[in-house]
Specification:
This protein is of the alpha+beta class and 247 residues long. Helix content is 30%, strand content 12%. It contains 6 helices and 9 strands. Strands 1-5-4 form a 3-stranded antiparallel sheet, with no helix packed on it. Strands 2-3 form a two-stranded antiparallel ribbon. A two-stranded antiparallel sheet has the order 6-7. Helix 1 runs antiparallel to helix 2 and helix 1 packs antiparallel against helix 3.
Length: 247
């Protein structure tokens, strides 16, 4: 699908739209919905930049589907966006009391949610192993998927089909993907990658894919990034402390 930047005068950014086009001074705004495929910008006819000044009236952009997007087509959890008003703000669990600035929200932020507990439980069962435990772990994931997806169509069919698994590594991958979907923008991803000891490889692979460069270009990314430095004052107070690598 192609569109022209600044082709309309009013902002379009509602749950009913898959593409939002902001007025000048704002970035082009996009909102994923359960009925729109995942997409990425493909610059067509002029230089793209991170500044809104690089978006010129009449400039053509192409929206191309992302083959390996993390959300399935019918997953309503994809309906989470970054709202651009005067600053970038994540729109999730936000009842948008003040739609002029999106600064007000009557909902409390959930530090821990039931679905997070279920996913932690599923992960523990999966890592213990054994068919009974892994079947139970799968049941936890499918319960979350059914709660989100519901049914679609007539006659009604389950929007997000139940998962199955072939072995422990396959189930591990599904649990990790489901955490990425369910806990998007909730501050868990860094700690999950660190806990799974896949931080470095994930970041390298993402950057390589994002910028089309070889993995060797990112050799500077090492396990050191997972640790903060020990404060210098603490090092002075306790000479037995050893500074973390890389600092």
């Amino acid at each position: 699908m192609e569109m022209l930047y600044d082709q309309i005068s009013a902002a379009v950014n509602t749950p009913a739209t898959s593409v939002g086009i902001r007025t000048p001074t704002f970035y082009v705004s996009i909102r994923n919905t359960a009925t729109a495929p995942a997409f990425t910008w493909v610059q067509s006819n002029s230089t793209y930049g991170s500044s809104v000044a690089s978006f010129q009236p009449g400039q053509i952009f192409t929206i191309a589907p992302i083959p390996n997007a993390i959300f399935e087509f019918a997953d309503p959890r994809r309906n989470v966006s970054i709202n651009i008003a005067n600053s970038a703000q994540i729109v999730k669990y936000n009842d948008q009391v003040n739609t002029a600035t999106y600064n007000d929200n009557a909902d409390d932020f959930h530090w821990i949610r039931y679905s997070d507990v279920l996913l932690m439980y599923a992960e523990a069962l999966m890592e213990i192993g054994g068919s009974a435990n892994m079947d139970n772990a799968l049941a936890q994931i499918n319960a979350i998927r059914r709660a989100h997806g519901g049914t679609i169509g007539t006659p009604a069919i389950q929007a997000l089909p139940d998962y199955s698994y072939t072995d422990q590594p396959d189930l591990r991958a599904k649990i990790r993907l489901e955490r990425r979907r369910e806990l998007l923008f909730e501050g868990h991803r860094w700690y999950d990658l660190k806990r799974w000891n896949v931080m470095v490889d994930n970041i390298k692979n993402h950057l390589s894919s994002q910028y089309g460069k070889p993995l060797s270009d990112y050799s500077y990314i090492t396990p050191n990034i997972m640790f903060l430095p020990i404060p210098y004052s603490d090092m002075l107070n306790n000479p037995n402390l050893v500074q973390n690598p890389g600092y």
